[in-house]
Hints:
By secondary structure, the chain is α+β, with helices and mostly antiparallel strands. It contains seven helices and 15 strands.
Amino acid sequence: MAIEVYRSFxxxxxxFAVVVGDEIDLSTSIDYTQLAKEAENNKNDxxxxxxxxxxxxxxxxxxxTLLNNLMGSTRRIVSGQNTSIAxxxxxxxxxxxxxxxxxxxxxxxxWLLTAAxxxxxxxxxxxxVRLGSSWKTHGGEMYDVKHCFVHPRYASKTxxxxxxxxxxxxxxxxxxxxxxxxxxxxxxxxxxxxxxxVSGWGKLREGGPSATYLQSSTIKTIAxxxxxxxxxxxxxxxxxxxxxAGSFSQPSPDACQxxxxxxxxxxxxxxxxVSWGLGCARGNFPGVYTRLSNPVIWDWLQNHFTNKSIxxxxxxx
Length: 317
């Protein structure tokens, strides 16, 4: 069966075929990088095609996968200070009465992921999100929030299971500056000393001003046994729902106040959520992140993404 594509570019056709399961016989080990390079000049047409209502309705669960495969293989995330939103297009700014309170990540065209502690004291009617802009206070687009959910096993004192979901009123229109990030696979074991990217508009230093332009840093994951030997309270670290990243022995790049709820990304997938820490970038005090591969968390997330009706057993804000 041939595919009718918005524009008949071969690379786009092949990519779309892979996602929707067309009869084109391609290996499971697709070289998305090469295909993406071939389609680089045609991204706008691909995005326009995928944003057509008929396509969105027919391939609701699949078209985001294609966008992620196409854009993800050519994204450039720059370690350091100022970072264009195009490098981390899943990043959003969560706002309460227009005031920025936390970060978040785009998971689908309707669902955003953040930290539970960012939502626990707020009502959906008071929240909005800004996305598609590198600037904290202007640019991009604003979206209203319809519902907020906090993980039912979230513990405010210990920050265990610190994850929450935001559902938008209107679906997002994806572009090079607004794209979803794939979620880590269930029960994935995170290896120590591996680089990951954190981003957000939080404080530039402990006790200092918040960033007005999007920031990102490359940090490394830390073995749990080392994390529990750090200056953090051993009893406060839940290995099942948390992991650590940053530096064990000396100051290093880190997330800070205002970055909460934002993404930590490794190998192109979202592995965690900025959760808590003591100070910012202190030696012997690594940052702590919500472990999204934990089955208790992962299953809860998938339940919301796949169920049409709202689960009444979860906390609705």
